[in-house]
Amino acid sequence: LNWSDYELSFQFKVLASCLGVIVRAVNLSNLVMLQIVPTGIRPHIRVNGAWMVWEAADAQLEFRHPLDTNEWHECLLKCDKDALRIRVTQASSVLCDKAWKIPRGTLQFPLVDGGVYGQSVYEGPKTIPFAINLEYGTVGFRNDGAEEAIVRDMLIQRIDI
């Protein structure tokens, strides 16, 4: 759970829709997932149960050509703190060899202070900042709804600094 630097490699075949690869799960409500679709990789971040999703084109993670759903592919993910290196190959052809950085920052949650008769007893800001830290966490896979894929030959190795 507390690994921050590791390499994850596996072979996969997308049968329907996509494959979700979870690379930074602090828990089920706070994680980073890379959704491998036929045209590229769609990064997802989940913070306190809410999703933020980027399309492959917006994240600049499009494949050079679409996945062949009849073939096995290889994926190598190098996770180094908030930097991800993503390499997807099909046979000897490199479909994607790119980097993506997990966004940093804070989310603002509304402050409920329990004032008396509608009057606030708190004089500060009306929101509380919640820092986003997804630089560590466990790995896994997701197939949800129409998503269907097969994974084999998975290897995870800690990167020692």
Distance between the termini: 18 Å
The shape is globular
**Unreliable parts:** none
Can you give the mean pLDDT?
86
| Helix residue percentage | under 10%
Counting DSSP E segments of at least 2 residues, the number of strands comes to 12
Work out the radius of gyration.
19 Å
Order of helices and strands: EEEEEEEEEEEE
Largest sheet: 5 strands, antiparallel
Strand content: over 45%
Strand order of the largest sheet: 8-7-6-1-12
Quickly give the structural class: mainly beta
**Number of helical segments?**
0
Report on this model:
Helix content is 0%, strand content 58%. The chain has no helices and 12 strands. Strands 8-7-6-1-12 form a 5-stranded antiparallel β-sheet, with no helix packed on it. The protein has a 5-stranded antiparallel β-sheet with strand order 5-4-3-2-11, with no helix packed on it.
Q: What is this entry, summarized?
A:
It is built from no helices and twelve strands.
Chart the SSEs and their pairings.
Layout: E1 5-16, E2 19-27, E3 30-37, E4 40-47, E5 50-53, E6 73-80, E7 83-90, E8 93-101, E9 105-110, E10 127-132, E11 138-142, E12 148-158
Antiparallel strand pairs: 1-6, 1-12, 2-3, 2-11, 3-4, 4-5, 6-7, 7-8, 9-10
